[in-house]
Amino acid sequence: MASNILFAEKNLADETILVDHEAIYRRLPQQHEFRLIDAVTHLDRDNGHAIAYRDITSDQWWCRGHIPGKPIYPGVLMLESGAQLVAYMERYADEKFNGFVGYGGIDDCKFRRTVEPGSRLWLLVQRIEARARRIVCRCQGVVDGSLAFEATITGLLISS
User: Fold this and answer.
1) Which residues are catalytic?
2) Number of domains in the chain
3) Is there a domain that residue 138 lies in?
4) Are 150 and 110 spatial neighbours (Cβ–Cβ below 8 Å)?
5) Looking at residue 104, which CATH number applies to its domain?
6) pLDDT tens across the length of the chain (160 residues)
7) Distance CA 123, CA 108 (A)
8) 10 part of a folded domain
């Protein structure tokens, strides 16, 4: 049985951009094809939750080879998009942070529906635990009001 959507009370159609694509990637180290968040629309670092989105378009690099004729956004890229939002919320939004956050683990991962070009993938994260060197967050992807994926993502501070 699928989980409830995090922050169901928030309007995911609210496109008020708090942090745009360029500002995100001035801080996050991922570049080129791995810039997988288009905008952050909600960011509450004190309470540990954030909302962002990724517009899935037919001109993206993975479309040609990931199911030719019917491209499907790869699950691993959904998880990477969510992990980037976790890292941004927890560390990179702080202008003083100069370390690197990498994957520490993915648990309880379920893919609930396909995500195709023309979709907006909403990314929702909720902190479960934050320590000096480890971050654990629930993460979900939502398309058209239904859950596309959910996972618990652990990030580790690799260097500082």
Assistant:
1) 66
2) 1
3) yes
4) yes
5) 3.10.129.10
6) 568 998 876 777 777 999 999 999 999 999 999 999 999 999 999 999 999 999 999 888 888 888 888 999 999 999 999 999 999 999 988 888 888 999 999 999 999 999 999 999 999 999 999 998 999 999 999 999 999 999 999 999 987 5
7) 17
8) no
Range of the domain at 148: 19-159
3-state SS class at 118:
coil
Q: Determine, yes or no, domain membership for 11.
A: no
Q: pTM of the entire structure?
A: 0.93
DSSP letters spanning 68-101: TTS----HHHHHHHHHHHHHIIIIITSTT--SEE
**Cβ–Cβ under 8 Å, residues 96 and 129:** no
Going from the C-alpha of 70 to that of each of 59, 60, 73, 149, the distances in angstroms are: 13, 13, 10, 19
